[in-house]
Design brief:
- The chain has about 325 residues and is mostly helical.
- It has one domain.
- The chain is about 70% helix and about 0% strand.
- It has twelve helices and no strands.
- Helix 3 runs antiparallel to helix 7, helix 3 packs across helix 8 and helix 4 packs antiparallel against helix 11.
- The radius of gyration is 19 Å and the shape is globular.
Length: about 325
């Protein structure tokens, strides 16, 4: 770790993470726009994973060619990570966005750190102090308000969208735990590339490959998909990695909680989606809980690192 890593005077890394969070949020909003025009979430997943492979492979081939090499023994774990981790996250996350508000879907996915904390306590014997218990409590109370479970409007909410949002948090947790294990051996870009490769193989074996003929779609759809692939996926990953080079992973992920805030603002401006005051309060509780639990993981040096350079959206 460099001597200057994480010093308060370093503004640039924080700006990189903030840009990544904003672009991820804009990608979610752009995805919702496509769903409102009739595009299937499954086809958008096919676009995202397939073209992201080309973008990331091109970057590694020209600038970090050694990062393309992996041990054959790790192919099975990478296949599981890509097909079930990356693939599961992509499908459930985008399906949730297609059914419920963008900010709500992202906040539900942000429950992943708490699933990881509970799993780590049960199976890795990680310490569970009162602050972690408080953060888990705040997260679930926040989720209660985000989905308006206290209101009769909850019964008109798309239940499959909520279930998909919760499943995305579960898949995100799985991706993070297995991804962390693989990143002890490989560059994060390497893990990300092969996760996308195996997700691409899976989705193109299920869905017709002719879906990828983007130039046959409407011009507005073409531009939106290109935006999601570049500015909603590849570029924010780049910003996130550049930022995390100079920050602790914990600090980076705390700054990244700007994503649901940005998503809420963008969805209001672009799509007219409005969160109620109680939903905003719930989002505030979830973000507060994330800051607490990530800070506690930074204090505990033996805790498994969560979300270390590997956000999957």
């Amino acid at each position: 770790m460099s001597k200057n890593k994480g010093e308060p005077g370093q503004i640039k890394p924080y700006l990189f993470i903030m840009c990544a969070a904003f672009l991820w949020a804009s990608g979610g909003t752009a995805s919702k726009y496509l769903f409102n025009t009739g595009m299937s979430p499954y086809i958008l997943v096919q676009y995202r994973v397939s073209f992201s492979v080309l973008v990331i492979f091109g970057y590694l081939f020209f600038f970090e060619r050694n990062s393309l090499r992996i041990n054959r023994k790790d192919l099975w774990n990478l296949a599981i990570l890509g097909a079930f981790g990356m693939g599961g996250v992509q499908v459930t996350y985008l399906f949730a966005i297609s059914k419920i508000k963008v900010a709500m879907a992202i906040l539900l996915q942000y429950l992943a750190p708490f699933f990881v904390a509970i799993y780590s306590y049960l199976f890795f014997k990680e310490r569970m102090d009162r602050w972690k218990v408080l953060s888990i409590f705040l997260a679930f109370i926040g989720c209660f308000f985000v989905v308006e479970a206290y209101s009769v409007s909850f019964f008109s909410l798309d239940k499959w969208g909520v279930i998909a949002g919760l499943l995305s948090a579960g898949f995100f947790s799985f991706y993070s735990l297995l991804g962390e294990r693989l990143m002890r051996k490989y560059n994060p870009w390497t893990v990300l590339l092969y996760a996308f490769v195996f997700a691409t193989i899976l989705f193109n074996s299920i869905l017709p490959a002719k879906n990828l003929l983007l130039w046959k779609t409407e011009f507005r759809t073409f531009i939106t998909v290109v935006y999601i692939i570049s500015f909603g996926t590849a570029i924010p990953f780049g910003f996130y990695f550049m930022g995390i080079e100079h920050l602790r992973a914990t600090r980076a992920t705390i700054v990244a909680t700007l994503e649901p805030i940005s998503a809420g603002i963008l969805s209001f401006i672009m799509l007219g989606e409005v969160l109620t005051p109680w939903q905003i309060f719930g989002g505030f509780l979830v973000i507060t809980a994330i800051i607490i639990i990530q800070s506690r993981r930074e204090i505990d040096p033996e805790a498994p690192v969560f979300m270390k350079k590997n956000r999957p959206n």
